[in-house]
């Protein structure tokens, strides 16, 4: 009995020891056990592989850790952005500085004048073409070049009539100038240019198609502006040249409620104008006929020292129906007394509306009155056909069509103040396209 008791106690101790030892030892994968039994790997190597496998399995079963959201980046201040990454300054190409502009005018024209034809009527169709290019060479220098249709010997008309059996339309250089902004208040223009864009003048005194040759200086002092000009009229190698010297001063002022006012005065001195009159009388210069007074030898009776004063008013409070009014007075201080006044003139124009947009309308009425020697004939309004000797009226209606184009209807009713010419009625129907 004692021997059996001892064996039972020994077996129990061995069983407990084996159980405890097995509890500490991890369970091997069957494949690892087989490799250990075959002697391919040792028990230590099998346990190391099993432990690595268990670690990876636990990591795969663990919940994913979501990283915290990134902190918001404060909005950069524009100046800081500019400092951090300065942009390269754009350099304008030469072709970016070129401005192409001009216009095409198609016209039907109808006259009623006693003796002009068998039935006292005449009709013709005409075109005016004026393309040009303008560019700023530098910040202080601008140049321009323009060509126009029309007779190159006619300074007061760019029109070409539809006649001559489809003959070609003559084209001439009408502008070629350089403009210098030398200093802030001073501007100088040299060459052949359109002065009406730079000074205050009426179409009765200076036809819309005239471009001058010479120089013009402009001085600006706040609302005050002073212009001087020197225009060459005729060069003669055998005697002194003919030219025009002049200037004007005017100021601009006003308010939103009262409108804008321009008030000023000017003076023109024509030096040796007889040279120009001779060109017209000889047929070398076309356009206006000589309407100034001549003696028996076709010599101008008067000198031309013309003073003028003017006031203009514009009111633009209504975008659709702006108003504009102009009044100019002229007196030729060089006119000779002939027992009658031949030296004064005036111009009045009233305008309402605009024509820059489709469907907009403009109405304009003008009054022309010039005694024969109040103005020098050569560059005066050509459509009245009376030049410096005119008593007439003009009425315009303009209708905006599409962008930069409009219809225009103009009626002139004129008669001379002194000369014996018949009354004229002239109707013009135009379509103008600007580009």
Describe the 3D structure.
There is one protein chain. With 435 residues, the protein is mainly beta. Strands 1-2-3-5-6-7-8-9-10-11-12-13-14-15-16-17 form a 16-stranded antiparallel barrel. It starts with a helix and ends with a strand. The N terminus is likely disordered.
Write the layout of secondary structure elements.
Blueprint: H1 2-24, H2 30-37, H3 43-61, H4 78-84, E1 98-113, E2 121-138, E3 141-149, E4 160-161, E5 171-183, E6 186-193, E7 212-221, E8 224-234, E9 242-255, E10 259-271, H5 274-281, E11 304-315, E12 323-332, E13 344-353, E14 361-370, E15 390-400, E16 405-415, E17 424-434
Antiparallel strand pairs: 1-2, 1-17, 2-3, 2-4, 3-5, 5-6, 6-7, 7-8, 8-9, 9-10, 10-11, 11-12, 12-13, 13-14, 14-15, 15-16, 16-17
Essential attributes:
single chain, 435 residues, mainly beta, 16-stranded antiparallel barrel, 5 helices, disordered N terminus
Question: How would you briefly describe this protein structure?
Answer:
With 435 residues, the chain is mainly beta.
Largest β sheet strand count, sense and barrel closure: 16 strands, antiparallel, barrel
Residue share in helices? 10-25%
Structural class: mainly beta
Instruction: Give the strand order of the largest sheet, numbering strands 1, 2, ... along the chain.
Output: 1-2-3-5-6-7-8-9-10-11-12-13-14-15-16-17
């Amino acid at each position: 009995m004692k021997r059996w008791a001892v064996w039972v106690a020994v077996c129990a101790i061995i069983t407990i020891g084996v159980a405890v030892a097995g509890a500490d030892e991890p369970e091997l994968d069957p494949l690892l056990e087989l490799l250990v039994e075959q002697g391919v790997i040792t028990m230590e190597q099998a346990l190391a592989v099993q432990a690595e496998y268990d670690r990876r399995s636990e990591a795969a079963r663990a919940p994913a850790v979501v990283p915290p959201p990134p902190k918001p980046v404060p909005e950069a201040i524009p100046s800081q952005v500019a400092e951090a990454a300065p942009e390269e300054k754009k350099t304008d190409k030469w072709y970016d500085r070129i401005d192409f502009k001009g216009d095409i005018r198609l016209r039907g024209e109808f006259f009623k004048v006693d003796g002009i034809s068998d039935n006292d009527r005449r009709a013709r169709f005409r075109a005016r073409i004026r393309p040009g290019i303008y560019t700023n060479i530098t910040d202080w220098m601008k140049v321009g070049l323009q060509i126009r249709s029309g007779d190159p010997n006619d300074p007061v008309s760019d029109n070409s009539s539809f006649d001559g059996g489809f003959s070609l339309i003559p084209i001439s250089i009408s502008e070629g100038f350089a403009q210098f902004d030398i200093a802030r208040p001073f501007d100088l223009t040299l060459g052949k240019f359109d002065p009406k864009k730079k000074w205050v003048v009426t179409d009765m005194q200076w036809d819309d198609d005239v471009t001058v040759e010479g120089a013009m200086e402009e001085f600006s002092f706040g609302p005050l502006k002073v212009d001087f000009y020197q225009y060459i009229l005729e060069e003669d190698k055998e005697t002194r040249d003919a030219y025009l010297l002049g200037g004007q001063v005017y100021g601009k002022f006003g308010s939103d409620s009262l409108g804008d006012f321009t008030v000023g005065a000017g003076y023109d001195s024509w030096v040796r104008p007889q040279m120009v009159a001779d060109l017209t009388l000889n047929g070398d210069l076309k356009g206006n006929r000589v309407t100034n007074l001549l003696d028996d030898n076709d010599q101008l009776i008067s000198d031309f020292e013309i003073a003028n004063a003017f006031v203009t008013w514009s009111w633009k409070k209504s975008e659709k129906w702006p108003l504009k009014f102009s009044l100019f007075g002229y007196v030729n201080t060089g006119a000779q007394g002939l027992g009658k006044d031949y030296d004064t003139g005036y111009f009045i124009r009233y305008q309402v509306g605009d024509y820059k947009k489709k469907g907009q309308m403009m109405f304009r009425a003008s009054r022309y009155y010039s005694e024969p020697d109040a103005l020098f004939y050569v560059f005066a309004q050509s459509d009245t056909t009376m030049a410096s000797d005119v008593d007439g009226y003009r009425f315009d209606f303009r209708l905006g069509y599409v962008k930069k184009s409009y219809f225009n209807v103009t009626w002139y009713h004129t008669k001379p103040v002194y000369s014996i010419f018949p009354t004229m009625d002239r109707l013009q129907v135009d379509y103008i396209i600007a580009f």
